[in-house]
Amino acid sequence: MSLSSLRELSSHWTGRLAHYNTHRNDEHLNALYEETRRFVGLHLENDLCRSEYWSRVPLHRRLAVLLYLVDQGAVEWTARNGRHVFLALPNAEDWVSHQPELRPFAKPTLELVAALRHDAARRARSRRS
Questions:
Q1: Of the ranges 4-8, 71-75, 95-99, 119-123, which one carries the lowest mean pLDDT score?
Q2: Which secondary-structure segment (H or E) carries 115?
Q3: What residues have CB less than 8 Å from 117, skipping those under 6 apart?
Q4: Is CB count within 10 Å lower at the N or C end of the chain?
């Protein structure tokens, strides 16, 4: 994704990621993009490829939706065991269901949240093994 596309994407952030709009160092925005791309591509791909919607949309669309959920506080971006991960917060499904602007995309957005929960469960099982 080009730097101008990243800047365009970040211009819509008004919540937890809004501070990226004021960064003078584009490397921070690039690092967020790369971490998100790696997570979506490595951790969520198997779950999302089974979805009729997510199997058709490009990677940058998946990133945009995931980062929107982080910005709005439905998903947390955090470090666990030395890795950055995305975790759906306990009320994520309820939050998505109550957002009028997401109504046309509620099903795929809830599929993304479900993929995040499935990934968290996989990681928890692998730590116990």
A1: 4-8
A2: helix 106-128
A3: 88
A4: C
DSSP states of 22-85 as a string? Answer: G-S-HHHHHHHHHHHHHHIIIIIHHHHTTSTTTTTS-HHHHHHHHHHHHHHTSEEEEEETTEEE
**How far does CA 2 lie from the centroid of its chain?**
18
**What is this structure's pTM?**
0.91
Which of residues 67 and 20 earns the better pLDDT score?
67
Q: Is 2 in a helix, a strand, or coil?
A: coil
Structural domain harbouring 26: 3-128
Q: Which H or E run includes 87? A: strand 83-88
